[in-house]
Each structure stands twice: as C-alpha cells, then as structure tokens.
Amino acid sequence: MQGRGRRLRQHAPDATTVVVRTDGPQPALVFGLTTGAGMMVSPRAFSSPDLGRAPVGAGAYVLDQKATVPGSKWVYTRNKNYYDPSQQTLDRLEIVLIGTAQQRVAALRTGQVDASMIGDAQELESYRRAGITTAISEGGDPIGVITVDPSGPFADKRVRQAVGYAIDRAALTGTAFRKGMSTPADQLFSRGNTGYADSPAFAYTYDPGKARALLAAAGAGNVPVTIPAMPGPQNKTEAEAVAGMLDAVGFRAKVVSPPPQMIGREIYSGKYPLAYVPVFVPDAPALADALAPRGGSMNPTGKPYTQALELARQAARASVDDEAKGRELYARMMTSLTEDGVVIPAFWSPVGVAYAPGVKGLRPWAGGYMGPPVYGVTVGGKG
Question: DSSP 3-state assignment of 189?
Fold first, then answer.
C-alpha cells in the first residue's frame, strides 16, 4: 500500500495475522484501521452488487433488510454472533429520517421516537422549552482556520498569526445557530481528545490591533485571500463573517463555494491559502498524520512541518510505554502548529442529543466527534 509520500508494507504469516511495517511512525494508523479504510469485507459480500443496500459487519446490531425502508427508516436487530452480548441492551434499533427541527421536537414529545440528535442551538432551545431532557458533549468537533498553502504573503508567520488575532470567536459562537451550544476555543482539540492541554503555552485572543501590527511588521497590506466555504448556507454565512473580520484588519477576503461533491479535495488542493472548516480528524495523532508530513492529505505544499512532525514522532514512540508522556508531546505539537499559524482554532461544535424520560445511558462522547454510542442504552427499563 502507498499513500501520499508514505508506504505501508504488509504480509500475512498465517491465516489470522497481518504484519504491517511503515517507513516511519504512523500515529493515526490504528485509528484509521477502525474506520472505513480498515474494513475487512468477506470476498463473497464484496462481490455482491447489494453490498451498499445490505451491509455486512461484525457490530452489535445488524440491518433488518425486510423492515428497512431505504431513504426513510433503517431497522437494526441484535447480531447473534457479537462477541459481547452484555452490550446489546436493545432488542431493536430504528433510525428514522425526520426533516425539520420542529418535526423532530414533536416526534419526541408524542413518543414517536425515543431520542433525537440536535442539529444546532436553536433546536436545542426548542427541546428545552418543551421540557425535554438534553445532553451535550464536553468540547466538540473543532472548527477553525487551516493554513493550507503558506506561500506568497502567507509564507510569513506574522501574516498567518494576524489571521488568528483577527477572529472574533465570541461573535462566531454568539449567533442564533451557535449560542448556548458551541464554545470559543483557545486550542483545536477539546478535553478528552489527545492533543488537549490544560494550560496551552500559546493561544490566540481577539485582538484586531495586534493583527494590524503584525501585518504592518511583515510589510503586508491589503492581502488578498480566497476562502472556500463548506456546503450549506450556515457554513457560508460563517465563512463570510470570518472574511469580514479579516477585511477589518487589512486583508481582502472573499468566499467561494466549491462543488459539494468535491469539497475535501478542493479545499486541500493547494488552490486556496486558507480554509475555514470543521477539522474532520478526532485528535492530534490523526492530525499529525494528515497535516505534518510532506504528502499528508491536508498538506499539498510538498514540504513537511518539521517541528510538528518531529514532536509527533516522539509522541508516537513515547505513547507505546507512557501514554501521559505521549499526550504531553502531542499537546506540544499542537502548540507548535498553532503558534506557527498553521492551525488557528475558532470554536468547538459539540454533539447534542435529546431523549425521552425512559431512556437511560445515552450520552455523547467526550470531545463530541461522533454521535452517542448505543452500547448499554435501555428504553423504559427494557431493551
């Protein structure tokens, strides 16, 4: 196997063992193997044209094809071959598609559903006004500015840092869409995620005067910058707000909307110096693998971020025997990327769930990267 600039060599010494050798530390490899990239699919299932509609897996619950209505309702029942039956506390799990927040609140109030994911702060307030119990993850999915291509004016660290001081995090999280749910962030990853520091050694504050001074010191004025927006009207609105904040300190920013089906490839193509995005990685090891090395999926520059890469390598080695030391080094790596103006945190967008009184054990993950797990969840005292 070969990635962008990295190689993985593997062999199978026996029927149940695969040995993987890499050309250097790959801190995100284990996480990557737990995602779609690491799926092991039986040859029989893989060759079936129905695999997309009839998935085959080893999870706690399996799709009931007869009860499922594609595009509307997905029904799951217990997997009789699951390795830990104690975690299968539900007899049946239904996921239904309900189009609007108003309909979701009504469905929960009337008992049509037992739980609902919360889309934004306005929906959260609707549940609370209705007296429905809610749970919000600590921290959340990181939203911020990534310097994709530090060339031209952005080759100067002071210009990149000016972006960090220009962002008004309180304003971004104070909108009706975010208020009461999202939290201004002084670092990319929140508590519970590797890379978080209790007291970060460097953090940006909202200081437009300092941003202007940094641009002046760099001899950079009226700096043009095009920012690609993620799909959706709210994402474009926020990207335009960030563009306005940059304009106020001496940039000339504009927002574009790349085709949604190509958004990831487009953002990290090297076409744009900056991106205002949800950072779709769960922690510092995954970010290190994607951003720090030459050829990383978030690094189109052809050059490594040397200091961050070395700290990531040290952290990967240390984590084998001393997890606390590994976390400390990953936190230093994140500080390095933040101070260098490569990673500029804005806020954390958490995962929220609303649920009926009879639901027990439903809690979002710390860090808020994914929806709440269903292991151990019960409804009305029964599965």
Answer: coil
Averaged over 259-286, what is the pLDDT? 85
**What is the rounded CA–CA span in Å between residue 38 and residue 325?**
27
What single-letter DSSP state applies at residue 2? B
Query: Above 50 in pLDDT, residue 146?
Result: yes
Q: Is 42 helix (H, G, I), strand (E, B) or coil?
A: coil
Residue 356 sits at φ, ψ, to 5 deg, of -75, 160
Residue 46 covered by a domain: no
Specify the CATH number for the domain of residue 88.
3.40.190.10
DSSP state of 260: G
CB burial of residue 174 (10 Å; 0-12, 13-18, 19+): middle
Residues 87 and 169 in one domain: no
What's the pLDDT at 6?
A: 55
221: left (phi over 0), alpha (psi -120 to 50) or beta: beta
Given a contact cutoff of 8 angstroms between Cβ atoms, the answer to whether 18 and 5 are in contact is no
**Pairing mode, if any, of strands 251-256 and 223-228?**
parallel
pTM of this prediction?
0.82
Bridge partners (DSSP) listed for residue 115: 355
DSSP string, 86-152: GG---SEEEEE---SHHHHHHHHHTTS-SEEEE-SHHHHHHHHHTT-EEEE-SS-EEEEEEES---G
Confidence class for position 149, pLDDT limits 50, 70, 90? confident
What CATH number is associated with residue 280? 3.10.105.10
